[in-house]
Amino acid sequence: MSSTNLTFRFIAILCVLTVLNMMFFGLTWHKKINYHPCVVDNVIEGVVRYIQNNGAHRLEHHMPESCARFDNAENMKETFNTALKNLLDICESRKIKINQASYKHSPLITLFTSWSPDSSKDPIHNNTLRNWASLQPEVKIVVFTNNTEDTNLAKSYGAHVMPILRHGGGGAPVLKWMFQSVMKQFNNCQLYGYVNSDILFTPSLVKSLKKVVLDKDMTKPLFLVGRRINVLNVSRNETDNYHLLEKVAKQRGELFGANAEDFFITNSAFPWSSIVDVVVGRLAYDNWLVGHVICKMKIDVIDLTNTVLAVHQTTKKGGNFEGFKNKDAHFNNALFKQLKIIPIFETGFTICSQELTYNTLCEDIEITKRETFWEKCKCPATVLF
Ligand SMILES: *[C@@H]1O[C@H](CO)[C@@H](O)[C@H](O)[C@H]1NC(C)=O
Ligand SMILES: *[C@@H]1O[C@H](CO)[C@@H](O)[C@H](O)[C@H]1NC(C)=O
Ligand SMILES: *[C@@H]1O[C@H](CO)[C@@H](O)[C@H](O)[C@H]1NC(C)=O
Ligand SMILES: *[C@@H]1O[C@H](CO)[C@@H](O)[C@H](O)[C@H]1NC(C)=O
User: Fold this and answer.
1) Does the CB atom of residue 86 touch ligand 4 within 6 A?
2) Euclidean distance between the first and the last CA atom of the chain, given in angstroms as a whole number
3) Across the strands, what pairs with 279?
């Protein structure tokens, strides 16, 4: 064999190897594209399976293939088990603490609302009353109305009825006056709440409010708000069953905007006397009020959205923006103008509240400071509202 022949063979082998190498590299490269990366969802899936099996098998056994690479599997399992056990202990001791400190006063809150005079037969109000009445005895109910039919309906559910003595913009009651009247009449309650007449609650309201009362200094002003969930065509059955109500809120519900505020809850330390005579059921008072409380009064507002289900009974026939359609829709805006108040409505969105409630992993409720704020929440240097 000549040396040139040998060189040729050597080059030929080199070529084959190179081609093989490229093919192999190409293959692995191709595989990399199809390779499913490990994402948080997969990790959680694996951890959930591990917990569901109550610790049986190795942690990596439960992980999807893409997430099964551990650097120190035994250590991680140990760390995870310890964290889980600690949480169970914490939940146990929290349960004991909550039972010991359990809220003993009753009633907890007086909820009040008002009905526009043209809607006396509205089944929505019937639903609302029945729903609120189901939260007795912690919840007391007051309805502001001058209408005889509404009075009879309210009384049939054990609600107290008060006439609308102070009103504006076509018979809409003055918010502050309602608070003051209710506080005077029922001075043994911890909290007082105005709620729009189409909002349904579950016991999550009572649970959240009890926690607030236990945690907060009730000699200082307290102001609570929350967002509502719009649910179309809530039926009678759904109204009357908390579990069903939670279910339809999940299935058909839509969390409504942070600018819509359908309930306000305060304690008796809140100085309603300093609030101007805005009326409910007309535009602009809600965001102004919350912005005023945060920026001018410098009182912390607590957002209950995470822990209170507030279902808005949405009907095709308006419901959502009733305030816009009324001929006196701008009553509150005219009042602001007259009083030289220049509201910055964005400062009063629910998402601007400084504190919020949340459900802990122990299935109880905590209150915490809000961490991040929408930029428009910022109070101006000079507050004209
Ligand atoms: C309200 O509901 C009750 C049943 O709980 C019913 O008997 C009554 O007729 C209803 N009233 C109105 C005004 O719709
Ligand atoms: C309700 O009735 C009272 C008298 O009892 C009256 O002074 C008040 O103006 C009425 N309210 C409305 C909204 O019509
Ligand atoms: C809601 O009820 C109205 C009648 O009350 C009906 O016309 C409409 O189709 C219903 N919508 C849904 C989504 O069920
Ligand atoms: C309401 O509940 C009753 C019995 O609980 C049931 O017979 C009826 O079909 C339900 N109605 C609707 C509209 O779901």
Assistant:
1) no
2) 102
3) 174
What pLDDT, on a 0 to 100 scale, did the predictor assign at position 99? 76
376 phi and psi angles, rounded to 5 deg: -80, 0
Nearest by Cα to 293 from 283, 278, 312, 307:
278
Give the confidence band of 118 by pLDDT, cuts at 50, 70, 90. Answer: low
How do beta strands 310-314 and 229-232 pair? parallel
Check if 237 has its Cβ closer than 6 Å to any atom of ligand 4. Answer: yes
Bridge partners for 328 per DSSP: none
Shortest-distance ligand to the CA of residue 130 = 1
What is the spatial distance between Cα 77 and Cα 246, in angstroms, rounded to a whole number? 36
- The answer to whether the beta carbons of residues 321 and 373 sit under 8 Å apart is no
Q: Are 212 and 303 in contact (CB under 8 A)?
A: no
Report pLDDT digits (tens) over 8-20. 565 565 555 555 5
The per-residue pLDDT for range 325-367, each reduced to its tens digit, is 678 889 999 999 999 999 999 999 999 999 999 999 999 999 9
Fold classification of 109-377 (topology level):
Spore Coat Polysaccharide Biosynthesis Protein SpsA; Chain A (3.90.550)
Q: Which residue intervals of the chain are DSSP H helices?
A: 3-34, 40-52, 59-62, 73-100, 123-133, 148-156, 175-185, 204-215, 236-240, 242-252, 285-291, 322-325, 331-338
- Cα dihedral 234/253/154/116 (nearest 10): -100
* Protein residue with its CA nearest to atom 7 in ligand 4: 237
281 CA to middle of ligand 1, Å?
A: 24
Domain boundaries, the chain: 40-100, 109-377
What is the four-CA torsion angle of 66, 68, 70, 72, rounded to 10 degrees? 170
Record the tokens describing residue 351, joined without a space.
């998402």
- Quote the CA–CA distance of 229 and 304 in Å, as a whole number: 13
Mean pLDDT of 52-80: 90
Contacts of 244 (CB under 8 A, 6+ apart): 237, 238
Residue whose structure tokens are 């016991």? 203
Tokens 């109305």 locate to 145
